[in-house]
Hints:
The structure is a homotetramer. Chain A is α+β, with helices and mostly antiparallel strands. Helices cover about 25% and strands about 35% of the residues of chain A.
Amino acid sequence: xxxxxxxxxxxxxxxxxxxxxxxxxxxxxxxxxxxxxxxxxxxxxxxxxxxxxxxxxxxxxxxxxxxxxxxxxxxxxxxxxxxxxxxxxxxxxxxxxxxxxxxxxxxxxxxxxxxxxxxxxxxxxxxxxxxxxxxxxxxx
Amino acid sequence: xxxxxxxxxxxxxxxxxxxxxxxxxxxxxxxxxxxxxxxxxxxxxxxxxxxxxxxxxxxxxxxxxxxxxxxxxxxxxxxxxxxxxxxxxxxxxxxxxxxxxxxxxxxxxxxxxxxxxxxxxxxxxxxxxxxxxxxxxxxx
Amino acid sequence: xxxxxxxxxxxxxxxxxxxxxxxxxxxxxxxxxxxxxxxxxxxxxxxxxxxxxxxxxxxxxxxxxxxxxxxxxxxxxxxxxxxxxxxxxxxxxxxxxxxxxxxxxxxxxxxxxxxxxxxxxxxxxxxxxxxxxxxxxxxx
Amino acid sequence: xxxxxxxxxxxxxxxxxxxxxxxxxxxxxxxxxxxxxxxxxxxxxxxxxxxxxxxxxxxxxxxxxxxxxxxxxxxxxxxxxxxxxxxxxxxxxxxxxxxxxxxxxxxxxxxxxxxxxxxxxxxxxxxxxxxxxxxxxxxx
Lengths: 140, 140, 140, 140
């Protein structure tokens, strides 16, 4: 499966006084990419939390910023899973600026997540998610 | 009781590309003022939520911006309660810039809150908070 | 002209520990509505800032919250101008939850803006914007 | 020089519906630590931007989350520079929870910055900052 692609427009609130998007906000965009990844698999992350009591807190985050995003830019977030085990999921992201002339890479990021219940105790990723995610990696 | 006063320094993240603090962030500062108001009364808002199952969602917010706050400004938030009933609390705030030469009014705000339980059902403000708040208003 | 309508999905980052959208974030959504209002008029707010040196800082904001927005809700922001003069614009907004069964009003808001240049000095709203905005109000 | 230490209290706005601090907000805290690092050196980051036209956009960010920060926690941010060259500065951070019983490590982070002018063109870090920073590393 190719990476999930989600588009958004940069909000004024996301800029800072340097006139570019504040660096922490790229991780908010990654979260949007993750959620859409699950939606394309046919699952709501909301349901994963509410019905399966499975939450995905972040244990590691990393971003390399290639070019600044600016106010009102149209931006695409590509998200895919690069590794999954029973209690760990690793996502990789590309953040791209969409212009009439094509795309420009703005940032590359990774996040690592563990699967926990509501009380933040480790638990296994439910089988249905594990299988669906593995299928996106061509590993089943 | 005079208004509770809390000070903070403007974060880079709170500015936008106009070079001033993004307007929604003043309401984040109001929240900080509210929490310190309760702390000065001898109560943790955290405990009000966890031990008394009493939460204070906002049903109305209002702010008049007098002068822009800027990055690294030292800012004071004054908070006081202007009205309280069994299920409603109304706060008023002043946001001030602190400079070596004195204070400058940056904004005035109000928020109105209802008291609810964890399931967002209306409930009464526990008596101890009601009494303590009324005492700050000189109305007991 | 009917109000401009923009839709978005509630981000995880926009929620707080009460499990609902943090109250200040509704004003971020209002900003998105304003920008789309100008885009539907045929103008980029970005160009208004860069080419016409006309900026619209907020001098007053107000929101009445009717029902909480929640994570992953599909939300519509309706924006329209209710008053415009040479140096002041007033917007009104409705925030709605979109569900398969229809729409639910989540919040109503207003913002008042003054027109300034890059140095935050008052200036007139350029004629082209003034006329276009007035046309949306049926007042020309 | 030991790391610069700044303390803050977790804001309600910084939590998410998992009941913990949203992961992107740790990078906002890192920024606060950086600014205080410069202040302890005797410099305002604000002046570096305004008087020296030297800005420090982030080109890489990384965080390992050890334990979740929660609403109203008292948190300390330790910041120090681990590498500096004429156009690059690398910071390392520790985020700690302060409790009556001691400190708990919540997260470790790094950010890498390049020095640019207002137009985002690379420029050298002014000598005074370079020397002052090197002095904190014991490398002069």
